[in-house]
Amino acid sequence: MRTRADAAGVAPTWRSVCGAPPRVALASTAPALPTHPKSMRLSRRPFLTLPLLIGGPAACGSKSAPKQPAVAASIFPVYDLTRRVAGDRVETVLLLPPGRSEHGYDPTPAEMARVSGAKLTVEVGLGLDDWVGAMVRRAAGREVASLRLGPKASPRPITTEAVGEEAAEHGHDEHEKGERHGEHEKGERHGEHEKGERRGEHAHERGGLDPHVWLDPVRMRDATPAIVESLSTLDPEGAQGYRARGEALREALSALDAEIGARAKRWARRVIVTFHGSMGYYAERYGLKVAAVIEPFPGREPTAKYVKEVLAAIAASKPAALFSEPQLDRRPAQAIADEAKLPLFELDPVGGGPNVDSYEKLLRHDTDMLERALGA
């Protein structure tokens, strides 16, 4: 997987663990992991310290807090919504470190250690994060219940525009012939990453279901009861609190949808070109048209033929701008933007960083970028 940045773990100090419930320590550190642009792996330093974090403050000599059920969420938007429903009753762990792409993620041993106590996983599904099940089973040594939000969020088929005609028909053939573009990847390619890439590619083939449901707040609002139900099954005594927090979250997502919808109505232009097919649900909800995508299969550089098709689509549709993504190398997008003489902005489909550390901040960030590009 060609990524722009890979997270590097920082070992927690004794002070950060002692006196704090394990849920708080994990939830507060997960989105804030720093990144190193040349690393393809997390630092191995957390491997010895993270089990202490999961174990809580008992190692400090103080009385151990009651152990809470552990929930592992695959990507940041799913994590943020889950932890808000869970509240203080459930330890919620983020699996995908900020700065990493969700497609074909390959966890390190340190990341595996963090989820050994998981009793439930919350995933997108639809082929996007298939790595979750294997990761948690290996870490826990047993089967773990799972909730996949994608199938519960009225998923839609991927269209030709979201994948690209040429890529859908020929992309796999050319990949199997051995085309590799090492300079596009910041780091070395590993065999296990190729397996993950191919799993991610299946989630982007034309005719399949688009897995990027989380970028539509209405769909996430409608999927929230599934989070409430799964947490209530895991922890029946907390069901009343889960229902109350779930309803508050639904109201917040309805307000976010209304806010973005009002802003989108003022945009002067409507056509964009995105880095990959992540923005289909957002575009459908708020009246945008995605004329083309730059990388139909995230992390694999587009072929010369496909680039020509993208340029032809740009010439025909006259989009306002192109967009890259922070998790992936922006050079293909920059090359096409330069050729088409169009501005290049950045949309973040996953979030979790310092300025996009809540679901609402993530969607507002992307709305801000679109507003700059499309004009109000």
Question: H/E element string?
Answer: EHHEHEHEHEHEHHHHHEHEHEHEH
The largest sheet has its strands arranged as 4-3-5-6
Structural class: alpha/beta
> Major beta sheet, specifics?
4 strands, parallel
Give the radius of gyration.
Answer: 21 Å
Q: What number is the mean pLDDT?
A: 76
- Which geometry do the CA atoms define? globular
Distance between the termini: 36 Å
Percent of residues in β-strands: 5-15%
Task: Describe what this molecule looks like in 3D.
- The longest helix has 26 residues, at 239-264.
- The protein is α/β, with parallel strands linked by helices and 376 residues long.
- The protein has a four-stranded parallel β-sheet with strand order 4-3-5-6, with helices on both faces. A four-stranded parallel β-sheet has the order 8-7-9-10, sandwiched between helices.
- It is globular and about 60 Å long.
- It has 15 helices and ten strands.
